[in-house]
């Protein structure tokens, strides 16, 4: 290879870096001014580095037949920046690929694809924007609570969104309790450092994270807080303690002044609606005061199961979950009320029960009584896998079912719930931070006649937290139209 050819590689890379740098202010302006969330094939590009933006474009070659360059998407962003867009989620990667296929005039193309939000921007004063936000309170600040906080803080910059106003915890007993809470938000052994800055106001008992003023309230009961004294009204309380799971227990939150609705980050008991966003979120009504976001495993498997049921029909099946250990287990052998869970989580694979298979029917009634399930807890801190062993009503082959699930992941209404990977080298840590409910591993798919086995990865912390926020958004009436709406021909 000649020196000229070698140098051309570096020249091409430098050009891509320069183009990605030019995209960053456009992405930021669309987000903060117009509340337009941009992505590339489901990969968010807001607040991302130059390398992250290039990597998001590179991902497209895994799921499409063609490459996608930042040179293809920059013109899309430049044109969108001039259109006074209203609030929306817009996948500029999918738009760019479709435009490359169709050609023609870019303005006319965008008019067809995102027409409903063109010219819909309405400037608001800061006071009006603040009035349009919905107060959110996190009751509990454990693994899920802190990830919910990260997502809420990250999304606050777009305006007219959810706003994290308070965190409610029990007094830890240490003199520097507030600093310890801040440190756990600032540093995470699995998900890495907080993306921004966090300061502590000891006098006012508050955290200031990326400009978000978050009151830290100490309380020993959900019905013992007057949120209105902190200027919090009609708040949605996200209970991530798991301590109260029925209507009577969760209803205690509604006795506190300033609370309008409650959502549980665990399977609800009794008549509480268990919502898996993308599947049955249309069940949510204005009259619902208490809802459950089901479990991480139920969220991971239900969208994939629905896709398979819709296309092939499911006779019956078994769900085996290979799940990372959780705080409920012991680090070393010690007493535990549950069977086997007293043994060291860091040293053992532990067989345990899971209600996820039966819980699927609460969101997808057509599968009631058709699935069994079990779980194996393994010595990893995060990212789990569900193995779906299904008997179908139609015969399938590996290529056909993988292509169908790829299309569902890219171009269906479940595109935010189902992701798709087709690499022989991926392992669990590759999915840390995934915001999809579940990721289908195409290389592991097995099919024979009417028998189908699917392997579905999921970040049982972050992917689930993203699903919870989607439910909270709907409860708050914060809805974004998604573009492009039509699948490619």
Automatic annotation (TrEMBL):
Stretches that traverse the bilayer: none
Top EC class, one word: oxidoreductase
GO biological process, alphabetically ordered: glucose metabolic process
Domain of life of the organism encoding this protein: Bacteria
PROSITE patterns: GAPDH (PS00071)
MF GO annotations: NAD binding; NADP binding; oxidoreductase activity, acting on the aldehyde or oxo group of donors, NAD or NADP as acceptor
UniProt cross-references to SMART domains, sorted A to Z: Gp_dh_N
Database matches in InterPro entries: GlycerAld/Erythrose_P_DH, GlycerAld_3-P_DH_AS, GlycerAld_3-P_DH_cat, GlycerAld_3-P_DH_NAD(P)-bd, Glyceraldehyde-3-P_DH_1, NAD(P)-bd_dom_sf
One matching Pfam family: Gp_dh_N
Keyword entries, A-Z: Oxidoreductase
Keyword Oxidoreductase part of the UniProt annotation: yes
Glyceraldehyde 3-phosphate dehydrogenase NAD(P) binding domain boundaries: 134-296
EC number: 1.2.1.-
UniProt feature coiled coil, ranges: none
PANTHER family: GLYCERALDEHYDE 3-PHOSPHATE DEHYDROGENASE NAD(P) BINDING DOMAIN-CONTAINING PROTEIN, GLYCERALDEHYDE-3-PHOSPHATE DEHYDROGENASE
Record-stated family: Belongs to the glyceraldehyde-3-phosphate dehydrogenase family.
Protein name: Glyceraldehyde-3-phosphate dehydrogenase
Protein source organism: Marinobacter subterrani
């Amino acid at each position: 290879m000649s020196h000229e050819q070698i140098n051309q590689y570096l020249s091409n890379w430098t050009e891509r870096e320069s183009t990605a740098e030019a995209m960053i202010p456009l992405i930021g302006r669309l987000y903060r001014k117009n509340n337009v969330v941009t992505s590339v094939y489901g990969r968010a590009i807001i607040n991302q580095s130059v390398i992250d933006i290039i990597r998001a474009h590179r991902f497209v070659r895994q799921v499409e037949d063609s490459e996608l360059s930042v040179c293809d998407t920059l013109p899309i962003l430049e044109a969108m920046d001039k259109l006074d867009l209203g609030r929306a989620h817009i996948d500029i990667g999918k738009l760019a690929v479709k435009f490359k296929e169709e050609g023609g005039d870019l303005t006319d193309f965008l008019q067809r694809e995102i027409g409903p939000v063109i010219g819909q921007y309405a400037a608001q004063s800061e006071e009006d924007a603040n009035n349009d936000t919905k107060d959110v309170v996190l009751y509990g600040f454990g693994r899920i609570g802190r990830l919910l906080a990260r997502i809420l803080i990250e999304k606050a910059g777009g305006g007219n969104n959810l706003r994290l106003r308070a965190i409610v915890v029990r007094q830890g007993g240490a003199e520097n309790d507030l600093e310890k809470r801040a440190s756990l938000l600032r540093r995470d052994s699995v998900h890495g450092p907080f993306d921004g800055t966090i300061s502590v106001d000891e006098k006012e008992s508050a955290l200031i994270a990326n400009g978000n003023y978050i009151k830290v309230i100490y309380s020993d009961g959900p019905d013992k807080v007057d949120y209105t004294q902190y200027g919090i009204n009609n708040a949605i309380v996200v209970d991530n303690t798991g301590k109260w799971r029925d209507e009577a227990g969760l209803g205690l939150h509604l006795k506190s002044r300033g609370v309008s609705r409650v959502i549980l980050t665990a399977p609800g008991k009794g008549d509480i609606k268990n919502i898996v966003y993308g599947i049955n979120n249309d069940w949510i009504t204005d009259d619902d005061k208490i809802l459950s976001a089901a479990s991480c495993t139920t969220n991971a498997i239900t969208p994939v199961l629905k896709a398979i049921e819709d296309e092939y029909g499911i006779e019956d099946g078994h769900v085996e979950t290979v799940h990372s250990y959780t705080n409920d287990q012991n680090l070393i052998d010690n007493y535990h009320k549950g069977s086997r869970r007293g043994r060291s989580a860091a040293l053992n694979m532990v067989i345990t029960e899971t209600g996820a298979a039966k819980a699927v029917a609460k969101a997808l009634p057509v599968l009631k009584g058709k699935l069994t399930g079990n779980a194996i807890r393994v010595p990893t801190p995060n990212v789990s896998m569900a193995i779906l062993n299904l008997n179908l009503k139609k015969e399938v082959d590996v290529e056909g079912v993988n292509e169908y699930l790829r299309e569902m992941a890219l171009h269906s209404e479940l595109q935010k719930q189902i992701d798709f990977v087709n690499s022989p080298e991926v392992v669990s840590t590759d999915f840390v931070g995934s915001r999809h409910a579940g990721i289908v591993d195409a290389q592991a798919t097995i099919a024979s006649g009417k028998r189908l086995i699917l392997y579905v990865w999921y970040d049982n912390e972050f992917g689930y937290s993203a699903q919870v926020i989607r439910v909270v958004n709907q409860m708050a009436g914060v809805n974004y139209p998604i573009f492009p709406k039509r699948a490619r021909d």
